[in-house]
Amino acid sequence: MFALVTGYSSGIGKAICETLEKNSYKIIKLKTRLEDSKNLEFEVKSILKTKDINVLINCAGIGVFKPHEEISVLKIKELIDVNLTAPIILSSLLLRTLKRTKGHIINISSIEATKHSKFSALYTASKAGLRDFSLCLFEELRKSDIKITSINPDITKTPFFDELDFEASNKTNTHLLANDIAKTVLDILKFKAVVTDITLRAQRFEIKKKVHK
User: Fold this and answer.
1) Does domain 2-209 have CATH number 3.40.50.720?
2) What are the extents of the domains in the chain?
3) CB neighbours (10 Å) of residue 123?
4) Which residue ranges of the chain lie beneath pLDDT 70?
5) Which of 121, 55, 123, 59 has its CA nearest to residue 86?
6) Nearest residue to 135 via CA among 57, 55, 198
7) Torsions phi, psi of 59, nearest 5?
8) Which helix or strand (DSSP H or E) is residue 95 part of?
9) What is residue 213's predicted lDDT score, i.e. its pLDDT?
10) 8 Å CB contact between 79 and 123
11) Residue 82: left if φ>0, alpha if ψ -120 to 50, beta else—which one?
12) Which candidate, 107, 97, 104, places its Cα nearest to that of 6?
């Protein structure tokens, strides 16, 4: 079976790819940047000439957490393109093949899609949009036997925070690990019914602010 996974190079996406490969999935990795919608469409259509896709996992994501007036227009567009527009485009491009394979779309959203946090307006908008897109698309496609799932992970210890001013706490009960998400993805794929929406939470909330020298 073929799984197209975005965000495969690190963090949650890398863990998902490794887990799926151990369970007989062949991973398809896009070469085109997700912001480049024209070439993205061309690459996907080229792939579909020779392969039917069983699973689409939209995992790529970027984060910005600062006062909204401090975020540049270019960064706003980049974040929305990666977090929301690309998953919507990829879903559209792959729906016909997924109907043939009775496949599955899994969108990695965020805990932020379920709440309202300071300095998270842009990121939350993109992830809430992705989550609502998932839920609406499931209703649209139920008769096609395509499964749609939104996974909303709590803070996860990954390179996602490398460019941010905070990161996950080192205490084990305050964050998830990428492998936790990957195992959940595999369980959902094996589940005979449909998990449409699942939120994975750490037991406690604690972040660590970075000290800039």
Assistant:
1) yes
2) 2-209
3) 22
4) 212-213
5) 59
6) 198
7) -115, -20
8) helix 86-101
9) 54
10) yes
11) alpha
12) 107
pLDDT of res. 211: 74
Would you mind telling me the total number of residues written for the chain in this entry?
213
C-beta separation of 42 from 49 below 8 A: no
Q: What is the pTM of this model?
A: 0.95
The structure tokens 């139920």 sit at: 142
Q: Which helix (H) or strand (E) holds 148?
A: strand 147-153
Alpha-carbon gap, residue 80 to 82, rounded angstroms: 6
Residues 164 and 47: their CA atoms lie apart, in Å, by 35
Percentages helix, strand, coil for the chain (3-state, rounded to 5) are 50, 15, 35
d(CA 180, CA 8): 16
- The β-bridge relationship of strands 166-168 and 207-209 is antiparallel
The two three-digit tokens of residue 191, written as one number: 């589940």
168 Cβ neighbours under 8 A, 6+ residues apart: 155, 156, 157, 161, 174, 175, 207, 208
Please report where in the chains the tokens 């490398």 appear, as a residue: 162
Beta bridge partners of 148: 105
**What is the rounded (10 degree) CA torsion for 89, 94, 95, 101?**
-160
